[in-house]
Each structure stands twice: as structure tokens, then as C-alpha cells.
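FIELD: query
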Amino acid sequence: MFLLRFLARHSFHFGALFFTFSVVLPALGCSESLETIPLTIKGVTFTVEVARTPAEQQRGLMFRKKMAETHGMIFPYGSDRRLSFWMKDTQIPLSIAFISSDGVIKEIYDMEPLSLREIASSQSVRFALEVNKGVFEKYNITPGDGVQFPPDFK
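FIELD: result
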């Protein structure tokens, strides 16, 4: 009986908590964590989150305030295509590498926080990799370099 009275009195609070965890946090990019994989480029291993679904790809790195130096996010697509990205609601400066289906970096661009300017690949590619701005330059990673994916990565 006590439990029923307690729940009846506090149902608003439980509803507010449910709303916060089911609607507000995912909208802020605080939903369940994404799969992470290691990628190696020129001997440097990056730990990257995998944005597979359209919702994950649309959210990307939005609302993040910082990211470890050799961390990032990979955007795999099911087929080769021209890709375009922007920095809406993305607060950290990034560099993006467009990568072919055979794992070769085709292009690298720097992107500014909160910019609505579209950054597009000039050719069809399979993947996009976002890392902190300047990290590719720091490790002398350039177009033509190969990316080593885990064997089971698709």
C-alpha cells in the first residue's frame, strides 16, 4: 500500500525523468555509445566511433566539446558515392578524410566549428573519417596514404 501511495504522489517526477532520458539526452548527442574500432594510418592507431545509421551519421560529433587527439568518427557507406559534410552544431574544429573502398585517402579538408559551409568529396568514396583539426598534418598523413581497417569491418 505504501508503494502505491508513493508512486501516485511521485508519478510526475518519474515521468519527467523518463522524458529526460528518452527524449532530451538523445537529442543532445548523449544517447547510447557507438561501436568503436581501431584504424591505423602510417603507424598511428586511431580509436574511432562508427556512425552507421542515418541518425548516427546526421548527429556525428555534434555537441561535443572535446575529443582525445587520436580519436575520431568513421562514417561508412554501403556503396561508393560523393559525400558532403557540414559543421552545424559541431563545436570542435575537425579535419575530414574522404577514403575510397580500397582504403586509400583521396582528399583531406579542414572544417571550422559551427560552419554551415558544405565540404564535399570531389569523387566517389566509401568512407569519411573525422578527427581533430591538424592531427593528419601532425602525423604527416596525406592523400594517397592507406587506412588499415579491422579485418571484419564493413
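FIELD: remark
Residues 16-31 have pLDDT under 50 and may be disordered.
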